[in-house]
Amino acid sequence: MKMSPRYLIVAVAACAVLLFAGANAHAEGGKANVEAAKAKGMPVFVDFGKTSCTPCKMMVPVLDSLTKKYKGKMDVVFVHVDEEKEYALKMGVTMIPTQILLDQNGKEVSRHVGYIPVEDCDKMIGNTVAVAPEKASKPVKSETSGKKSAKGKTCSPGSVCK
After folding, report:
1. Cβ-based neighbours of 52, under 8 Å, separated by 6 or more
2. Pick from 51, 43, 46, 50: nearest CA to 26
3. Residues annotated as part of the active site
């Protein structure tokens, strides 16, 4: 059975669409997107890599998953090292893929080199997202805070008022 060139082109195009569908759910654009996230006061998970590197390609579904899971709490950004060489060097990236987690103040919290599964990313992210601006600004109230003890002293937050 002979296939016409027309069907071959359609089949190749369909495979390409399926292969790359959803591959860009995470933000691309390098330094500009990292700086924008830092300006919002959000933690940022930055993946430095290339589109031609096999472990970097394996990171695409991981980044997509993190983007969905932490939407509104943390930005996930891909930095293409060939397009942003100076920024990658400034960030100390010498091997790819490299993942760097920045807290809401833009300070590096954690770094990993190589492919990393989603579960390990979650461990890497840890409490960094839990202290994102919308949660960090809420004061923690204690049941005893401000109450008077039996001896007339004001109780401190978190203490047992006797």
Report:
1. none
2. 46
3. 53, 56
Strand order in the sheet with 44-49: 27-28, 75-80, 44-49, 98-102, 108-113
Q: How far apart are CA 15 and CA 136, in angstroms?
A: 45
Give the pLDDT confidence of 81-129 residue by residue, as tens digits.
Answer: 999 999 999 999 999 999 999 999 999 999 999 999 999 999 999 888 8
* Three-state DSSP class for residue 31: helix
SS3 124: helix
Pairing relationship of beta strands 75-80 and 98-102 according to DSSP bridges: unpaired
The two three-digit tokens of residue 132, written as one number = 């994102």
Q: Which residue has the tokens 């993942």?
A: 99
| pLDDT score for 2 | 58
User: CA-to-CA distance for 92 and 129, rounded, in angstroms?
Assistant: 23
Sequence letter at residue 30: G
Domains of the chain, with CATH numbers? 21-125 (3.40.30.10)
Q: Once rounded to an integer, what is the mean pLDDT over residues 70-74?
A: 94
Burial of residue 121 (number of CB atoms within 10 Å: 0-12, 13-18, 19+): buried
Residue 49 confidence (pLDDT) above 60: yes
